């Protein structure tokens, strides 16, 4: 029992000490704030004494009002300098943005000019493509779907241009042009396939010059002419090519098979090549031959050299084209614009 009472006394003592400590702490804090309040509530008299005989101006205030006024003035001055600096920075940024905007507008004008030139070129391309397809017998409507015509054909593009304004117009034009060009790929591929087939056919027909040389010229045409040796009129059955010298290479004018490599008193060294479709070509007055009988040759392959063998007045190539038993003018088959 005595032990229990002793514990209770100790407990009361501890509680009393803690309570007294808290009371003392809060009392100290209270006294501190009271002193601070008294300091800030201290009265001050401010006097303004002019140099003239004017009346002295004085007014009363306290420390708190004075400190608050000083803080307010410092805040206003600081805000003024801060916002003034921000205004200067903003002005510089605005000036930079205006310069960039002018450069962007200049680039946009240039882009619009290039876009206009592109559309004009595309319009010419559309006209040329349509004419080419018509000449080749290809139906444009069969190669392009109706939806793509409505969305991508250049005709709709040129009629709708005036209804769209600003950069949206340029974007619309480019989208329409892109759609049209994508749809134009298929007919162009068909043209390429057709030309490839035609090239295969052209390689079987003697349609190139047998001599590829900057100095080559036709010294005698096909048809009636005066023989340079006898001086008599006769039918010249071929075309004479001359470079004013011997030794320049002679090419096969089409794919075919060599059927004759020989010598004749009139033609000198000569070669005859058989081509498809009943066509034969003869090359005469050669100084040398580079193929053998039975050999297959390709168009453009070197088969011999210009010479002065047989009855001639100078080095040249006598070139003939035969269809069956008929001799025809080689100029009708030579693509002069292609190799001249």
Overview features:
single chain; 340 residues; alpha+beta; two-stranded antiparallel sheet; 7 helices; 22% strand; elongated
Short overview:
The protein is an alpha+beta fold and 340 residues long.
Describe this structure in words.
This protein is an alpha+beta fold and 340 residues long. Helices cover 51% and strands 22% of the residues. The chain contains seven helices and 14 strands. Strands 3, 6, 7, 8, 9, 10, 11, 12, 13 and 14 form a ten-stranded antiparallel beta sheet that branches. A two-stranded antiparallel ribbon has the order 1-2. α2 (63-136) runs parallel beside α6 and α4 crosses α6. The N and C termini lie far apart (138 Å). Mean pLDDT is 81; it is low at 142-152, 158-164 and 336-340.
Shape: elongated
Proportion of helical residues: 40-55%
What fraction strand? 15-25%
Helix-strand pattern, N to C?
A: HEEHHHHHEEEEEEEEEEEEH
Q: What is the arithmetic mean of pLDDT?
A: 81
């Amino acid at each position: 029992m005595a032990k229990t009472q002793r514990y209770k006394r100790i407990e009361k003592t501890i509680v009393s000490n803690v309570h007294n400590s808290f009371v003392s702490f809060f009392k100290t804090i209270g006294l501190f704030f009271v002193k601070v309040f008294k300091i800030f509530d201290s009265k001050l008299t401010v006097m303004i004494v002019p140099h003239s005989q004017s009346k002295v101006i004085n007014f009363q205030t306290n420390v708190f009002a004075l400190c608050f006024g000083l803080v307010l003035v410092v805040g206003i001055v600081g805000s003024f300098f801060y916002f003034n600096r921000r205004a200067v920075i903003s002005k510089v940024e605005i000036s930079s943005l205006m310069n960039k905007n002018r450069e962007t507008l200049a680039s946009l004008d240039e882009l619009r000019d290039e876009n206009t030139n592109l559309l004009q070129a595309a319009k010419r391309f559309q006209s040329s493509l349509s004419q080419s397809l018509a000449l080749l017998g290809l139906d444009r409507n069969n190669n392009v779907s109706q939806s793509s015509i409505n969305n991508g054909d250049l005709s709709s593009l040129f009629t709708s241009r005036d209804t769209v304004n600003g950069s949206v117009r340029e974007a619309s034009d480019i989208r329409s042009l892109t759609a049209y060009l994508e749809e134009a790929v298929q007919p162009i591929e068909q043209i390429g396939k057709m030309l490839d087939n035609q090239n295969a056919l052209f390689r079987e027909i003697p349609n190139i010059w047998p001599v590829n040389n900057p100095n080559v010229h036709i010294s005698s045409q096909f048809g009636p002419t005066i023989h340079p040796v006898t001086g008599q009129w006769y039918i010249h059955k071929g075309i004479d090519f001359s470079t004013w010298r011997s030794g320049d290479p002679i090419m096969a004018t089409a794919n075919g098979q060599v059927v004759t490599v020989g010598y004749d008193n009139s033609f000198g060294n000569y070669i005859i090549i058989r081509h498809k479709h009943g066509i034969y070509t003869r090359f005469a007055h050669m100084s040398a031959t580079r193929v053998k009988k039975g050999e297959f040759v390709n168009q453009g392959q070197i088969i011999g050299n210009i010479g002065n063998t047989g009855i001639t007045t100078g080095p040249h190539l006598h070139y003939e084209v035969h269809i069956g038993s008929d001799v025809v003018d080689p100029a009708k088959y030579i693509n002069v614009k292609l190799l001249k």
